[in-house]
Amino acid sequence: MEKNQILITSGTDYKRMTKELLERTDLKAHIKDRDKKIGIKPNLVSPSEASWGATTHPEVVAGIIEYLKEHGFRNLVMMEGSWVGDKTREAFEVCGYDRLEEEYQVPFWDMQKDKGIPVDCGGMELNICERVKEIDFLINVPVLKGHCQTKITCALKNMKGLIPNKEKRRFHSLGLHKPIAHLNMGIRQDFIVVDNICGDLDFEDGGNPVVMNRILAACDPVLVDAYVCQMMHYQVEDVPYVKLAGELGAGCSDISKAEILFCQEEAEKILPKSRKVVELADAVEEVESCSACYGYLIPALEMLKEEGLFEKLHEKICIGQGYRGQNGELGVGHCTCKFRHHVEGCPPLEKDIYEFLKEYILGKEE
């Protein structure tokens, strides 16, 4: 498989599709040495089943493992760290990765339990989980989906699961885009298998899955993300970390240089246009908020909208680390604990935020 190629297959037997895709790309030739330690990095952002649209289908990872074992690779490990606010081990079990670990005898590394070490990432020092250094060949298995802060998330952003929770919080204080781009200079992805089966096009933690039943394979994470931008009706410039990663040298962000190969002519070539987040985000004043906190707020606002209550919310909702120690009217999360009205939690869950805001709105009407 060439560096500029993106291969796409579609169907409903995800394990078989994955194995056939890896055969077509000749993954074994990319790895070469059977003794290399191979890391498989899915997206287990939170404890929700893959059908919810947020996490990597275990069948895809099963296909990768079976392919590798059939070709003589034995030194395999699965590795991931969920977002701040959820425990990786819970996601590991809910998403079915405990069964993969047992069936295939491939260990799972909880990166939330790993300590961070400083690494020069293209001129920016970032803390990366120490055991990432033990991996000789990294297979990234992200979910193609939307994100309420960065618009898209796929190959590049999925590397955030390989940094400590403290560093994840710092990424948000740094503005997300710059550190995500630089992170991919410190962690090299050798191969990408994208789960485009039913990702949520709005929310990182799922809830509105859009069924596409596709799996993508590529070698260049920047080119993959540039292609995802195009499929989701964005320009690369709309997602700054993709463009910056290209400028840093993590890959190519010029989609015109990509060779897109469809295994089936009937495969859908474009994703539906979805912009639920844009209107909802207008009600929010966000400063350095963590993904989990913001990710739970937006779906809560969607629930209010469905009940006809969102339009009655006239006060901006403040959220994020930038509000620590400040006063205000309406806030979400522990960082706004000094506000007159706030919902506690780090992060507060979607249901808690919804009930808090509903009570606030109805109380204003009395």
Written overview of the protein:
The longest helix has 16 residues, at 291-306. The chain has 366 residues and is of the alpha/beta class. The strands form four sheets. An eight-stranded mixed sheet has the order 4-3-2-7-10-11-1-12, sandwiched between helices. It is 33% helix and 18% strand. It has twelve helices and 16 strands. Strand 8 and strand 9 form a beta hairpin. The protein has two domains: 5-262, Rossmann fold; 276-365, no CATH class. The protein has helices spanning 14-25, 27-31, 58-70, 88-94, 97-104, 165-173, 177-186, 221-231, 240-248, 276-281, 291-306, 350-365, and strands spanning 5-10, 38-42, 76-80, 108-110, 116-120, 125-129, 137-141, 145-147, 151-153, 191-196, 214-218, 259-262, 284-286, 317-319, 330-332, 341-343. The chain starts with a strand and ends with a helix.
Summarize this structure briefly.
This protein is α/β, with parallel strands linked by helices.
What is the CATH C-level name of the largest domain? Alpha Beta
Backbone CA Rg: 20 Å
Q: What structural class results from the helix and strand content?
A: alpha/beta
Unreliable stretches: none
End-to-end C-alpha gap: 65 Å
Helical percentage: 25-40%
Beta-strand share of residues? 15-25%
In CATH terms, what is the architecture of the largest domain?
Answer: 3-Layer(aba) Sandwich
* Strand numbers in spatial order across the main sheet: 4-3-2-7-10-11-1-12
Number of helices: 12
Output the CATH homologous superfamily of the largest domain.
LarA, N-terminal domain
Overall pLDDT metric: 93
Strand/helix succession: EHHEHEHHEEEEEEHHEEHHEHEHEEEH
Domain unit count: 2
Strand runs, count: 16
Write down the CATH topology of the largest domain: Rossmann fold
Biggest sheet: strands, sense, closure?
8 strands, mixed
